[in-house]
Amino acid sequence: MAAKVFITGAGIISSIGLDYKEVLSSLKASRSGIGKMTLIDSVHKEEIPVAEIKKTNAELKELANVPGKAIFSRTSLLGIIAAREALSQAEIENTSEYRTGLISASTVGGMDRTEKFLKKYLKDKNHGRLRDIITHDMGDSTEKIAEYCRISDYVTTISTACSSSANAIMVGSRLIENGILDRALVGGVDCLTLFTINGFNSLMILDKNGCRPFDENRNGLTLGEGAAFLVLESERIVEKTGKKIFGAVSGYGNACDAFHQTASSPGGDGAFLSMQKALLKAGITPDKIDYINAHGTGTKNNDLSEGNAIERLFGNSVPPCSSTKSFTGHTLGAAGGIEAVFSVMAIEHQCIWPNLNFANKMNELGFLPVTELRKDAAVRNVLSNSFGFGGNNTSLIFSKC
Amino acid sequence: MEAFINSLSAISPQNTFAEEKLLHEAREYNNVRFLRCVEPQYSTFIDPMASRRMSRIIKMGVCSAIKCLQEAGINNPDAIITGTGMGCVEDTGRFLASIFENEEKLLNPTPFIQSTHNTVGASIALILKCKNYNNTYGHRGFSFESALLDGIMMLQEEEANDILVGALDELTPDLFTITDRLGFWKKDPVNNLHLKDYRSRGSLAGEGTTFFSLSRTKNEKSFARIRSLQTFLKPAGQREIEKKLTDTDKPDLVILGINGNPPGDEIYNHLKSGIFVNTPAAYYKHLCGEYDTSSAFALAMAAGIIREQHVPDIMKLDSKPVGAIRNILIYNHLRNVNHSVIQVSSC
Questions:
Q1: Which overall architecture, per CATH, does domain A5-241 show?
Q2: Which of A369, B27, B49, B346 is most exposed by smallest CB count within 10 Å?
């Protein structure tokens, strides 16, 4: 039996709040972060809504407490803010005390600065400021976070599209279970960019009215930005310190849909397998799941495929299920981390978060998402799904301790 | 912690893909500032219908992965794990350029779809219809090592018996231009085989895709064994590096990441005249160039050396006699930020 992996801290920044407390109160008040695009200069800003963090990079720098002149991508700044909160919640000041790792995740890295660089570079290859391109790769934001948090024992970045940070949480848990690390800061970050806005727009899967997960008339996703990290610690540390425990990572599963580079298989094979593997790892039967935080992007394809997979696994007794992307938008590489924090919050506050913007039941599915906040729910085990391009499907199970 | 290597396949600036014997004939490039891969006939390995829309890195990655699995006799690996420092650069650049050129209107989504770092890992799974574990790391000089560690953990967890682990990085004209402006490469063209002898700053750019088929237990195809793996970020100094290197068993050969950039090579030279003063040393970046996942090429060379019990002269850094090669240590750093140590042994 593998060692248990405990969650001792959680940090988050998203369009519905700049920290754990603010985010929690938005969830409780059903306050969505989806609105008009104001910080990105895109030709689509009038017609495509997004879930932005309404802070400029200069303001984020102040919030992160980094020098004004230092070179940080928006991704790094968001990551630092969330990572710092997670460590502070876990009461960790000295990261050298135990073998500590950082497993972060991203899909765009420092693309926000790359875009600035390219505008000039594309006109003249000798132009574009180099300081705007050195933050391009995925490793940059992770190393900035690692440096800020003084983590160097094991540092890496996962990039598997929209399941990236769910995979980071899974890998961090495994590194602890395998005795390679005692402690891991795990999660992910992505900021809004022209690259992703235009990418998803070219696929014609951005809902002009804001995403409506699991609704019969859903018409695509809404992009968001944010960062979220969990602190995972081994049983040994937790026993020794007696610190507050938010829950445990009790199960995880990753499977490949192997159907199409972007589209999910109609029956949701990959999703079914990842959920099944997570349950097997957790050693629990489907009826023990009290809440499913679905991937639920709001695209025609995902919600049908995921819904079918859920029904295949849970039959007629689908547990309360919602997609919180109706609050935060789809934060891509950060989504698994953000939804892991929502799962932790659900366990801590015994709540089930509503699926906003829902009006009409999908014809193909038998279950309805939860549309009103449920308080005093008995939430012991939460299943959280994250699915990405390339059919990369990851399911995580978080449990009350 | 261990994993047996049962096959490998590398597309590189050398003839590694076609040759059965390791570096049978080293490719010499004169007057160059970068090395590009010797690309195979893809249609032998990938259905032309499928490869039609694939970018170069996808074709190279998929092709080396497929050949690697064929040689190991594996149809459906229990995991496909890849590492790439820069991902699918060509498609990313194409899509970005189209955003600005077309003022964000009527864009072709194909390069966007294929821009994610896991495109190659996903394409392999799609071709094989492999629904098993699939993961991709993208972290500078740790990308391949992270994939390898994940794979070794999979085997250790007994979740997997046979897995595919690989690394891929492509060099595009824009990537070269930009990294050249950043001062990564020697300004004057060089002869690759003499890379270590130039006094000028910078290195020689390179690229490659390298895949390994690994198993938990030894089988009739096993020819080398990965015994340990460490990565460390920005070490405080030479002593910290030496400590990590002396944590391993005494090697019969050490393979160093010398890339021709004098400040960076100083670290290796210290080791050669210090803790490895009596150990035969070799290097490899004059063969493949410098790139984020070049350590995967080094591992391929190390595994080949163990299989053939022969160190190609072109890799040798000294004339120390080499006896039986049971244990090889690979030490590499990327711009003195990402350091890694891989220990490979005979089975």
A1: 3-Layer(aba) Sandwich (3.40)
A2: B49
B226-345 CATH: 3.40.47.10
CATH superfamily of the domain spanning B3-223: Thiolase/Chalcone synthase (3.40.47.10)
Chains A and B: how many Cβ contacts under 8 Å? 185
Sequence-distant (≥ 6) Cβ neighbours of residue A269 within 8 angstroms: A255, A257, A258, A259, A309, B131
Fold agreement between B3-223 and B226-345: yes
Answer yes or no: is pLDDT of A343 > 90: yes
Mean pLDDT of B76-91: 98
A1 touches chain B (CB under 8 A): no
pLDDT, average across residues B167-194 = 98
A391/B125 CB distance under 8 A:
yes
C-alpha A220/C-alpha A300 separation (Å) is 7
Nearest to B113 among A175, A256, A261 (CB): A261
Lookup: tokens for A149: 């948090």
- Dihedral of the CA atoms B212, B217, B219, B221 (nearest 10)? 10
| Closest-CA residue of chain B to A204 | B109
Amino acid (one-letter) located at A172: G
Q: What is the pLDDT of residue A3?
A: 61
Tell me the CATH number for domain A251-399. Answer: 3.40.47.10
Residue A330 falls in the annotated catalytic set: yes
pTM here is: 0.98
Question: ipTM for the complex?
Answer: 0.98
Domain borders along chain B are: 3-223, 226-345
The pLDDT, as a whole number, for residue B20 is 84
Helix (H) or strand (E) holding B10, with range, is: strand B3-11
Averaged pLDDT for residues A169-185: 97
Contacts of B140 in chain A (CB under 8 A): 137, 139, 143
Q: CB B97 to CB A156 under 8 A? A: no
CA-based nearest distance B105→chain A, Å: 8
Q: Which residue of A has its CA nearest to B144?
A: A156
- Residue B109 is predicted with a pLDDT of 97
Residue B131 C-alpha, separation from nearest chain A C-alpha, in angstroms: 4
Residues of chain A with CATH 3.40.47.10: 5-241, 251-399
Task: Mark yes or no for CB contact A139/B142 under 8 Å.
Answer: yes
Q: Which two tokens stand for residue A290?
A: 């009290």
The DSSP bridge pattern shows strands B208-215 and B3-11 to be antiparallel
Active site residue A295: yes
pLDDT tens for each residue of A258-316? 999 899 999 999 999 999 999 999 999 999 999 999 999 999 999 999 999 999 999 99
Q: How confident is the model at residue A1 (pLDDT cuts 50, 70, 90)?
A: very low
Bridge-based pairing state of the strands A291-293 and A381-388: parallel
